[in-house]
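so my prof wants the structure for this chain in the tokens format not the other one, which i didnt know existed until like an hour ago. anyway here's the sequence
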Amino acid sequence: MTLTAKALWVIERNLDRPLTLGEIAAACGVSPHHLAHAFGRTAGQAVMQYVRRRRLAAAARALAAGAPDILDLALSHGYGSHEAFTRAFRAEFGATPGEVRHKGNTEDLPMNEAMKIPPARDAEPAPPRIERAGPMLFVGLAGRHALGATQGVPAQWQAFMARYGEIADKADPIPVGVSRDMDEDGNFDYLCAVAVKRFSGTPRGLVELRIPARGYAVFTHRDHVSTIGATYGAIFERWRPETHRLAADAPMLERHLPGFDPKTGLGGVEIWIPIDDAG
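here's what i got, hopefully its the right format
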């Protein structure tokens, strides 16, 4: 059973009680950071987003069946007030709880049914090399994206490369992508960057990032860069470091290989997954 399949089982079994990302991850034997990436890459949405949508679907069915008290229903489905529940319900279904109760059915609602994940493919990512690196200094262009909606990343790279020549004291000419600070809704910061020897006169509109020294598991993605999401999915779903250390909640790196061609997206990328230094 894949990690996402385990998480889905935990969620569906416990939809009737409070759930947190940490609790779901603990039940699956991984860190919240690891689960967030595995689930997001495989399911195309964040763990807690899926939980909320499944609870709203359950609430819609209860309303259609005539649930008498909307506030009680809101509280039992994880909302702190009638207003918060109504806002979320309308955003999900385009109708208010009262309208669904009056109609008495959910036939026209976009219900988020229990997700079924196909069996994992037999192929697994090639074993990574374990490497310690850093500290590292980066200067780059920052953007905020969501798992399953990263279509803005290529445009961000185009904008960054137009300013690449403004950055001084480069430590390595090959650009690096940095992913960090994912929230429970699957939104994360992505930095198109280049490593520098020191921070000196960073151009306006670009940001500085210092990453402390730590261990990484380094995987190679050799296919077209547009398919890198599938490699991430395979890593987080099926990989366990030979050192038995889990992915850590720290920035991940995408390093273009020396032969990478930004015009074609071919040439390969290394994926640097931070690992828990404990143990």
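also thought this was worth mentioning. The CA atoms of residues 170 and 185 lie 34 Å apart.
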